[in-house]
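User: Just a sanity check before I run the rest of the batch. Below are the structure tokens for the first item. I only need the designed sequence back.
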């Protein structure tokens, strides 16, 4: 637990926000979202509950900000270094496939799927969340770069980004319903190979 160095009347700054999100991550990994309380998070973060409530109304809003931070970190961390001689498309596809693999292996995602899967349903069936909006922005920017260097099929960038994200989400969220790790043709690795093929055929001019 972080020592309480904060005045309870102060608003959290960005450093405090990371401390709080680290605390809620630890709570969720330990007991799941439904059993996590603002008191638990405040105690782990070394802040008062009132300080948390000034920034987040409840645990679910905290978890929403945590997911945004973690998923964007997965996406950006999965992208390889730019290699202009290759064009945009090859490293982009490498990063997208690696990102799906990293997302599925992320401890927070695994915990939510195992204990609180209903938390993900609104972002699959009803509305886009902050992390999806941020990912769409990253995708659209990369696709425009690919349009400019000729390595990505020309199409409206926003629509193309949304289409790619739909493909990625289906693999990230539902892949385990289709795999059979005892069958070499139906392993996770084999399906990620299919994902690479789908992206190549979708994005190649």
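Assistant: Here's the designed sequence for the first item:
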């Amino acid at each position: 637990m972080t020592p309480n160095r904060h005045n309870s009347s102060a608003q959290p700054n960005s450093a405090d926000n990371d401390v709080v999100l680290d605390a809620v991550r630890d709570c969720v990994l330990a007991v799941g979202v439904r059993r996590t309380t603002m008191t638990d998070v405040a105690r782990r973060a070394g802040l008062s509950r009132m300080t948390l409530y000034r920034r987040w109304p409840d645990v679910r809003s905290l978890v929403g900000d945590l997911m945004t931070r973690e998923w964007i970190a997965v996406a950006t961390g999965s992208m390889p270094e730019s290699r202009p001689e290759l064009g945009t498309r090859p490293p982009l596809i490498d990063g997208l496939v690696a990102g799906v693999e990293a997302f599925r292996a992320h401890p927070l995602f695994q915990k939510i799927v195992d204990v609180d899967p209903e938390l993900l349903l609104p972002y699959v069936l009803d509305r886009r969340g902050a992390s999806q909006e941020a990912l769409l922005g990253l995708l659209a920017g990369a696709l425009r770069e690919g349009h400019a260097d000729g390595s990505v099929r020309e199409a409206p960038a926003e629509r193309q980004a949304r289409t790619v994200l739909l493909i990625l989400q289906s693999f990230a969220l539902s892949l385990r319903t289709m795999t059979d790790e005892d069958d070499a043709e139906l392993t996770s690795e084999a399906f990620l190979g299919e994902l690479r093929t789908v992206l190549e055929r979708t994005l190649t001019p």
